[in-house]
Amino acid sequence: MKKILKYTAILLSVIGLFAGCTKKFEQINTNPASYNQANFDPNFLLTTAQVAYTGSYDFAYDTWRANLIYSSTLIQGFATVLSYWAGDKYTLNAPYAAAYWGFSGDGAYSEQLKPIVDIIQSTKDKTQYKNIYEIARILRALIMERVTDLYGDVPYSEAGLGYYAKNYFPKYDKQQDIYNDMLKEISDAVANLDPSADKISGDVIYKGDLTKWKRFSNTLMLRIAMRLTKVDPTTAKTWVQKVIGNTMTSNADNAFINGDNAGGLSTINRNSLVLTGAGGQEPYYVKWSNTFINFLKNNNDPRLGKIAVTQLYPNATSTVQNPAFISDPTVQKGMPNGKDLSGIAGRDIATDPSYTGMANYSSPNPGMIKTNGTTFILTYGESELLLAEAVQSFGIAGDAAQHYHDGVKAAITYLSQYDSKMAVSDADAESYLSTHPYNAANGLEMINTQYWALTNTMLDFYESWANWRRSGYPVLIPVVYPNNVTNGTIPRRFPYPLAESNVNPVNYNAASAAVPGGDNLTGRVWWDK
Fold first, then answer.
1. What is the pLDDT of residues 495-518, one digit of tens each?
2. What residues have CB less than 8 Å from 180, skipping those under 6 apart?
């Protein structure tokens, strides 16, 4: 009998053990040292997405192809004789135009949006991550604003949700719907930021400073709203009114990320990677455009002697800056757009009247393109110039002349954030403004030309091109180059990636057919009227 009771007890113990194991099967069979949705720290993903926004982790392909090869030359910030810089000649290189969207696991959707969506999905119901959830919503809008500005109708509401919703063929949302939702999302996120909630450790932009994040977010809403001035002025005015008094207050609020030389390829300044020669002969053959340099020079702009130098790279094989570069503003000279090395008169740069040697054309100041240097995201100068336009267009937001003054001054003096040697004094900025006062009669042109100058010096040619398309200023003279694909007009958008026709054909075909003007470089996004 005792033996029977003994064996019964053992059997019951074993059964109990298996039952307990079954109830805690997932817990027992999960490596406590590994990350999963239950225990991961979203701050790591936040850093990943923020750094990726300033340039891809691969060989800077989105920066190199979308920001520099295309946007910088279309907007006549840079010029070049390199044949593969398609934007300078209005030719189509489909992979380059698709680079920002992404391919082979890089680009905005995979490197920027996906980690942000992962944060949103994994923190939306967790009070311990309240603030990082809201910051992720704001960053999602920042990322998607650029994507939709470049391409138009794009995957938005279903983008990045393949793992969560099992939808691997996201629809292309209408740009109007995207803009409306971005404004709503940012507004709601700002209202929910809570200083008493979680501290954000993975924020490499503002180090978790929620006050600055609120100013940033309201400035971003201002920029998004002002993009609608021609297509939906009522909505633009409504949202501008919501942010008045809550935008950036000085250059101390500027949003930027500094590269880290010691951190390896993934964290260095991406514009620098290209413009200092890691990709080829860009240092010698890519220069400031004569359109931009002439604007600064003709107006005796104090920025000229800070952002431009000559003799930086004395020959085509040099990849190390020459310390004997010349920053004297009187010798700065921009390169004309639409030139090449063909040897054909009128096309070859050597036959242009301005040519005295490639090194005599102006290059970006070395302080702007340090590998551990600054990549700007959004600035106080942009905010004030947009507010000046809001006054001019809608009669709201205060005094246009004051906003213009503050915006231009900020756009001049912020250069010290690149490098202390690039600093322009307040006195020099005020002197410039005293001789170039705001004039309401041509206020829109003055405001948007200064916005173009600012975003060019930020090397944010995405934004420079977008605002030019929206405002029409400055008035740019298109280049005429053989075999261009735009009939000699400045391109207005990027075509959709051809890979989309294979991976998401139904939605791609519908979106392509709906592009005003066609799915090409001369088609237009919704707000571009």
1. 999 999 999 999 999 999 999 999
2. 235
